[in-house]
Amino acid sequence: MLKDYLESGHCFKLVCGAGNEDIEEVKRLVYVYALAGCRFFDLSASKEVLNAANEALDSAKANDTYICISFGIKNDPHVNKAVINAQKCVNCGACETVCPQGAIHYGKVKKEKCVDCSRCWKVCSRAAISYVSEEKDIAQVLPELVREGIDCIELHAMGNDEEEIFTKWKYLNDNYEGLLSVCTSRGKLSDEGLVDRIKKMIKDRKSYTTIIQADGFPISGGNSDYKSTLQTVATAEIVQNADLPVYLILSGGTNEKTSALANMCGISYHGVAVGSYARKIVRRYIERADFWTNQYALNDAVSTAAALVNSVRNKI
What we know:
2 domains
């Protein structure tokens, strides 16, 4: 069971991206990381994405694996999509160069690949890039996903719209009996505000039926250093100090240094969720035209992924 895996304290969760609906990319990512020893996978709330992940797990002959489906609220960074204004765009290529997902080509965005990392927006000298929110209608898509079989549902509770957060949270509590996860960060909240929000969300739930995914700096991974993961550990410490009956997972800027830094800082956690960095280190393999037939490249991809998985599993 997923609870047993969390209680082991060595849980590694691959975050494919709440907004990542590139079916082939998700399938390849899940396949590589399943072969590398990952057992927990975070996916967009899409039946097609879920089916692709399950196909990959079957191909990898992976046993005892768990699926988490993620939902966001309006304007949550995990479900926003970049839009390029063609009248302002001069096709300088800066956005295409910095996009870690390869979602931009010749001034056009492939929405299914965009995960709103904001890198394109930051480098655009013409203010040609904006974002639209494409959050899922939970009531519409959840029943089918539950029928397909999932192990956990995560709500990205970012921002200050408490009415929307708690409306969606209530729906999940009323319509799903399994583990629920809250991915949240300080953002515009104070440390006290973060803890108060979590306490409100878990007050009517049984002990240890909720995961708190402490998101230090959402969608900020990509570098292999302690600085990138510093806010992750700092946010986790705030949750830990509140002494709540929840499972604690570290996320947001995570990499292979996260466990080491958390251990140095005395953080007691149940796992680490890695998204941007996990995708980055295997991207050159994932994008190969011969991915499914080149065993040498696949072996390298799995070896690269396994080193990251083991950094959490072994807490080195």
